[in-house]
């Protein structure tokens, strides 16, 4: 019988690329990870890893086992969900990861509704950039999380996760009110306020500007859209702002709609869709998103 914990380590090695990264994700030592993977190799009876310079990579058998392991882990999630559905009421911890704009606009109503309808739930919120959510779900630090992508920067689906659509938003070019009537092309020579490098918002802004024929000239970095809009109002530059963050812009900001869209989804581990806590969260989030749209 193959050990599920060791299968998770192998899947994480496939995803993260190094034993050191797997060890860090699980708060193990690298030698402990190597030892567990060696035991898994003995259980399977064929080599799963091979040396490639100073690193280890998966063999053909290792890649096959990872594909099947993802199916096994999803089946375990479905089993856990089925057992949880037999309990009286929805209860227990629900660890939620969400990006700052959603924490401010969507989550308050969601948390209130869940607390009212399912008082047995212990709701735990962590503010995270969407880039960090998949790893947190895989590593079981979260139970549900909000992801988003932009049509300018589509994100490849994660085979370990399932998602449901939540919100589709217009993206605006936020400009100082007195800067003129031009859109994205006219912002070529403007100073830009951009998110921290490495975030999805930063990457999306770069891609949108490059599609318009230029690289933005960055003056400020800010991740909170309220801060971004305050800087735009102070004539410190222009920025891209999604509809969720642009409902009440400060005086002195003009919003120019762009064809770019931002798409938000609720994500959870594959197989967990019918877990009562996950299903309750999805229902409450859709209600909150509907109220925002209306």
Automatic annotation (TrEMBL):
Annotated keywords: DNA-binding, Transcription, Transcription regulation
Protein name per UniProt: LysR family transcriptional regulator
Matches recorded under Pfam families: HTH_1 (PF00126), LysR_substrate (PF03466)
GO molecular function, one term: DNA-binding transcription factor activity
InterPro entries the UniProt entry points to: LysR_HTH_N, LysR_subst-bd, WH-like_DNA-bd_sf, WH_DNA-bd_sf
Gene3D superfamilies for the chain: Periplasmic binding protein-like II, Winged helix-like DNA-binding domain superfamily/Winged helix DNA-binding domain
GO CC terms in record: protein-DNA complex
């Amino acid at each position: 019988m193959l050990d599920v914990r060791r299968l998770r380590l192998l899947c994480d090695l496939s995803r993260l690329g190094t034993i050191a990264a797997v060890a860090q994700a699980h708060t193990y030592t690298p030698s402990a990870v190597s030892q567990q993977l060696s035991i898994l190799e003995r259980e399977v009876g064929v080599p799963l890893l091979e040396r490639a310079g100073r690193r280890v990579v998966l063999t053909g058998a290792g890649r096959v086992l990872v594909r099947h392991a993802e199916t096994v882990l999803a089946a375990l999630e479905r089993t856990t969900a089925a057992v949880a559905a037999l309990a009286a009421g929805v209860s227990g911890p629900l660890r939620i990861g969400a990006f700052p704009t959603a924490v401010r606009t969507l989550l308050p109503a969601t948390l209130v509704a869940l607390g009212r309808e399912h008082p047995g739930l212990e709701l735990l919120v962590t503010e995270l950039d969407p880039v960090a959510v998949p790893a947190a779900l895989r590593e079981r630090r979260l139970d549900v999380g909000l992801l988003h992508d932009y049509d300018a920067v589509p994100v490849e689906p994660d085979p370990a996760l399932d998602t449901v659509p939540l919100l589709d938003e217009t993206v605006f070019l936020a400009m100082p009110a007195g800067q003129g009537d031009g859109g994205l092309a006219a912002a070529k020579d403007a100073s830009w306020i951009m998110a921290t490098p490495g975030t999805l918002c930063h990457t999306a802004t770069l891609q949108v500007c490059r599609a318009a024929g230029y690289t933005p000239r960055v003056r400020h970095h800010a991740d909170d859209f309220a801060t971004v809009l305050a800087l735009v109002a102070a004539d410190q530059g222009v920025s891209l702002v999604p509809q969720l963050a642009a409902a009440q812009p400060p005086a002195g900001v003009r919003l120019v709609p762009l064809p770019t869209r931002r798409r938000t989804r609720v994500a959870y581990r594959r197989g967990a869709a019918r877990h009562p806590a996950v299903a309750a969260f999805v229902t409450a989030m859709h209600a909150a998103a509907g109220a925002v749209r209306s």
